[in-house]
Amino acid sequence: MKKLPVGHFDxxxxxxxxxxxxxxxxxxxxxxxxxATAANFVKLTGTVAAGSATPSAxxxxxxxxxxxxxxxxxxxxxxxxxxxxxxxxxxxxLPLVYAADPGAGGVIVVIVKRVLDHA
Length: 119
Fold this sequence. Notes:
mainly beta
């Protein structure tokens, strides 16, 4: 079996220099985004308005035909509430349910699987 000298590539994305591991090539996030794009997954960010326990988050780029796979609350509104659930997406909006008015400033991240248009 052939041994690799220190400071050479190990055949993968990792290499060592001076006994310390360094990364060569794309980051893990780059690879995740590449796979997600190939599978037609899209990451969107939306803002939540105040005034109701059932606000519609403005999610620019969201389509009513998108299949929502995940919704995560990145930033709570001023009322410091977690969202409880979401409803069927509509174009550029996602209806949410809170226990009370979440207050302004909330941000959500939505992962959808996009239906391809074959027109």
